[in-house]
Design goal:
Layout (H helix, E strand, L loop, with lengths): L1 E2 L3 H21 L7 H23 L1 E4 L3 E6 L5 E6 L5 E5 L2 H6 L1 E7 L9 E7 L1 H16 L10 E6 L5 H10 L2 E5 H9 L2 H11 L6 H5 L19 H10 L1 H28 L4 E5 L14 E6 L2 H11 L4 H9 L4 H6 L3 E4 L7 H12 L4 H4 L7
Parallel strand pairs: 8-10, 8-11, 9-10, 11-12
Antiparallel strand pairs: 1-2, 2-3, 3-4, 5-6, 6-7
Helix pairs in contact: 1-2, 4-14, 6-10, 9-10
Length: 376
């Protein structure tokens, strides 16, 4: 990954430089101008021009082995540190940097002598960059002889609390999101699963076009190249009305989804992700929490959750209660979680909350972080 500072800051710098040159050349008449003022403006223009060149020549690099900063036009200077030697990572933000939404990140090693070996100055999205560097350093510090795996964080909460939005925030910090709901939908369309559902509940569980056949033909007559699909609304109506049918479906689907999650977690490690976030609607009920190193509870007031599901899914309060009635009570979920994320109105920005949790996840018990995904 190669980073440069935000392009819009360069535009501002160029604009200020051109404005200074314009003032020097057109507003100050050499015959009448005060020489010290003219000299001061000329010196300022030169400094700004040098800053522009310095800006254009600066590159910040983070890969799987080292972090570096390269700068200079005539003479190139490169500072770097191996990830295994990183001892401390810090971020500072001046008043101007806070106004512009940037920050400066410093990386220290045991040889730093109280300073920093590598400094990334005025980078955009500083909190995200800080989390990426810390995550990369933590992964590299792990003993290569260990069974390496990423920390796994599960998300729990009430219906409509915003777990998917929280998962996207972690994705912005370099974490891989595993959407168990999407995996379950994919599993429903597997041929062996479809055959079992048709055996249990008949062809009525297929979408209308598949159940009736093309052009009103016989059931099972599928157009060439079109695969029959399960009607998830009909399946939901069956399983929510009968707990025994729901248990039977879960016993069929959950092993498939569990295997897919483990495969995705292994792929995330190979791809250099910082961690894995599991977004599963029935995280505790399905035992998915046993695959996680920790679980975060996404908290949101009920009126806000009701407004969200009404807006996004068209559910009323009765439907919300029906859905939540099939899950653990919120108090029980909250008691079983290590972290709490406030996603209600007026809460602290989710990015900051996610950064704290991501940092805490890297300090969890080492034995837990070396447990194989999917193992009890």
């Amino acid at each position: 990954m190669v980073l440069i500072r935000p392009w819009w800051m360069l535009v501002i710098l160029v604009f200020v430089t051109l404005t200074t040159l314009w003032l020097r050349g057109f507003l100050i008449e050499p015959a009448r101008a005060d020489r010290p003022i003219a000299a001061l403006i000329g010196a300022l223009a030169c400094v700004l021009l040098v800053s522009v060149l310095q800006w254009l020549s600066t590159r910040y690099t983070l890969d799987r082995e080292r972090i570096s900063a390269s700068m200079g036009v005539v003479r190139r200077l490169t500072l770097e540190a191996r990830l295994t030697s990183i001892e401390h990572v810090a971020m500072t933000r001046s008043f101007l940097e806070r106004l512009l939404g940037v920050g400066t990140i410093g990386v220290a090693t045991p040889a730093s002598g109280g300073g920093y070996d590598v400094v990334w100055r005025s980078v955009g999205r500083p909190h995200e960059r800080l989390a990426l560097i810390r995550c990369a350093a933590a992964l590299e510090h792990r003993d290569a002889g260990d069974q390496r795996r990423l920390p796994v964080l599960g998300l729990a909460g009430g219906v409509g609390s915003g777990k998917s939005h929280v998962a996207r925030v972690f994705a912005g910090l370099g974490w891989r999101v595993i959407d168990s709901d999407a995996l379950a939908r994919d599993a429903l369309d597997r041929s062996e699963v479809q055959a079992k559902l048709i055996e249990w509940w008949g062809r009525e569980v297929l979408c209308e076009s598949a159940a009736e056949g093309p052009n009103g033909g016989q059931a099972g007559e599928e157009p060439a190249g079109r695969k029959p699909r399960i009607d998830r609304k009909r399946v939901a109506a069956i399983v929510f009305a009968d707990p025994e049918q729901r248990r039977r479906l879960e016993e069929l689907i959950h092993p498939i989804v569990r295997s897919d999650r483990a495969t995705m977690a292994e792929a995330a490690l190979a791809q250099g992700a910082c961690g894995v976030v599991v977004d599963a609607p029935l995280l505790f009920e399905a035992g998915v929490d046993r695959e996680c190193d920790a679980v975060a509870f996404v908290e949101c007031p009920r009126p806000e959750r009701l407004a969200r599901v009404a807006r996004s899914r068209g559910w009323d309060e009765t439907e919300l209660e029906r859905r939540e009635g099939a899950q653990w009570p919120l108090e029980r979920k909250l008691a079983a979680c290590r972290f709490v994320i406030d996603n209600g109105p007026g809460a602290e920005p989710l990015e900051r909350q996610a950064e704290r949790i991501a940092h805490a996840m890297r300090t969890l018990d080492r034995a837990a972080c070396l447990r194989t995904p999917g193992s009890p």
